Amino acid sequence: MARRSGVSALRATVRADLTEDAHNALVLFLEANDITLTAVMEILAQDLIAELQAVDDPSHAWPDRVARARRLDAERRRRPRS
Fold it and tell me: Which of 38, 40, 44, 59 has a Cα-to-Cα distance from 22 of 20 to 30 A?
């Protein structure tokens, strides 16, 4: 991943295309808890770091989440693009 100069070198941007339902659920959750998506992503990444340290192979981390993500990716690839 390319590094940018200055303070921004400490941060990276993540972009995601969400369904309307997923977006709405996230907004509801974030607003109800007065937190940011950035904070949620940082916590998820901390959990992932701990998980990666606990397994010998990164492909063995979060097997249930990986299986669900693979199914979702496959489903989205099958959908016709509008």
Answer: 59
